[in-house]
Specification:
- By secondary structure, the protein is of the alpha/beta class.
- The protein has a 6-stranded mixed sheet with strand order 6-7-8-3-9-10. Strands 2-1-4-5 form a 4-stranded antiparallel sheet, covered by helices on one side.
- Strand 9 and strand 10 form a beta hairpin.
- Helix 6 runs antiparallel to helix 8.
- The longest helix is centred in the C-terminal third of the chain and has 16 residues.
Length: 251
């Protein structure tokens, strides 16, 4: 495996003030993710996984500790530098898709590239089209996002997350709003992207979804309590086939 560290954090703490109390959301976390990994970040509500994701995504700062993203120490960066990192190094996929309504799939995917002055409109269109092809939506490019199913909208969101060639995709409960079969289809897509070399950090509270990833990191009370390679890793395309066979037998 490639040993290039995409993410490296050491001694990470995050404290929040709630009234007179200090809430310790992260308590001295050490973690590294190397290029090509597909990592599930798990834990119950309040375990610290969402706080970690916000820090990894440069949406929040740690109270203490260091965070290197693709070799850059994020700790000392100013707001404009963090914004640039978010638009060039990171791809985001959210549970609620976060697409612009009444806007085509193509326009939604082009959005992250609008902030990159080195990419002209022709190249922006080409890259957005290529990203939509990569997620299997070549026939839906001109469709409005609110004319699409939940699974299709999430595919648009994934296309948007890869359009700027990020060093890592950060997905937050990306299957949370989807039924079982559509969830498996989205996980099949993530597995395909990962096979092409894309690094993925995937926050989920669902153990059956985490089985599709390669490594499981479990949080409790702001600390990592488990970090291990996935046992009996599931292949999403096989899971979809099994569901189809079960439906066929039932009908």
């Amino acid at each position: 495996m490639n040993n290039h560290k995409i993410i490296e954090i050491k001694g990470l703490h995050k404290n929040y003030r709630v009234g007179d109390e200090t809430v310790k959301a992260l308590r001295g976390v050490d973690l590294s993710i190397t290029q090509g990994e597909f990592v599930a970040i798990m834990g119950t509500s309040g375990s610290g996984k969402s706080t970690l994701l916000n820090i990894l995504g440069c949406l929040d700062r740690a109270s203490e500790g260091d965070y290197w993203l693709d070799g850059n120490n994020v700790k000392s960066m100013k707001k404009n530098q963090l914004a640039e990192i978010r638009s060039t190094k990171l791809g985001f996929v959210f549970q609620s898709y976060n697409l612009l309504p009444r806007t085509t799939a193509l326009e939604n995917v082009e959005l992250p590239l609008l902030y990159n002055p080195s990419i002209n409109s022709k190249l922006r269109r080409e890259k957005a089209e290529a990203a939509l092809v990569a997620v299997g939506l070549q026939d839906r490019m001109k469709h409005l996002s609110n004319q699409m199913s939940g699974g299709q909208q999430q595919r648009v969101a994934i296309a948007r997350s890869i359009v700027n060639d990020p060093v890592i995709i950060l997905a937050d409960e990306a299957t949370g709003n989807l039924d079982t079969r559509t969830s498996f289809e989205i996980m099949a897509l993530f597995q395909e992207l990962n096979e092409k070399g894309i690094t993925i950090g995937f926050v989920t509270h669902e153990p059956d979804i985490a089985l599709f990833t390669k490594r499981n990191i479990v949080f409790r009370d702001g600390r990592i309590i488990k970090d291990a390679q996935t046992e009996n890793r599931a292949i999403a395309s096989e899971a979809i086939l099994k569901l189809k066979n079960e439906d066929y037998i039932l009908n």
